[in-house]
């Protein structure tokens, strides 16, 4: 499925900027392609920028990469639960608390990228395992209806959003 074919009733409106910014991409292809694009992009960032904050209280690039890792794990877990027809409403998460407790700035950029790649490979294998029926299944996460396939596009859009923030505010 392509992102521009995703019905808007399969995700909360607050995810619209992520999905709308994707243009016309195929879910599985883009999950893989944007992984490689992101790693290449981050590897070209000057080393002195990884601990930089563009304003007081803002996250560093390392914090954001850890945030992407944590969020993708949570989104993939949601996709798994919903794909398996689990009807339990899934809670949201407080991203600032996660960043505050992740110690990303104590890690090397290579460790973060290795973990990011491992998480994405796991996500990619998970999404490849879903049938068309499972991809269309709907559940509740963060008090909003969402489909499994929408979660995949949200993962991609979330990553691309933060990559754009890197370009605009950190470099």
TrEMBL record:
Domain called DinB-like: residue spans: 31-163
One short Pfam name that applies is DinB_2
User: What is the name of the protein in this document?
Assistant: DinB family protein
Organism expressing this protein natively:
Flavobacterium rhamnosiphilum
């Amino acid at each position: 499925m392509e992102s521009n074919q995703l019905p808007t009733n399969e995700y909360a409106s607050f995810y619209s900027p992520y999905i709308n910014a994707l243009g016309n991409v195929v879910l599985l292809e883009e999950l893989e392609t944007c992984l490689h694009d992101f790693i290449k992009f981050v590897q070209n960032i000057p080393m002195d920028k990884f601990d930089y904050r563009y304003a007081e209280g803002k996250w560093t690039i390392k914090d954001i990469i850890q945030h992407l890792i944590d969020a993708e794990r949570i989104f993939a877990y949601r996709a798994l639960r919903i794909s398996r027809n689990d009807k339990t409403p899934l809670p949201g998460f407080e991203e600032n608390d996660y960043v505050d407790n992740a110690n990303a700035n104590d890690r090397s950029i290579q460790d973060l990228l290795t973990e990011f790649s491992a998480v994405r490979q796991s996500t990619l294998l998970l999404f490849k395992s879903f049938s068309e029926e499972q991809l269309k299944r709907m559940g509740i996460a963060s008090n909003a209806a969402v489909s499994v396939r929408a979660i995949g596009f949200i993962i991609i859009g979330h990553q691309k959003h933060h990559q754009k923030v890197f370009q605009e505010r950190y470099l």
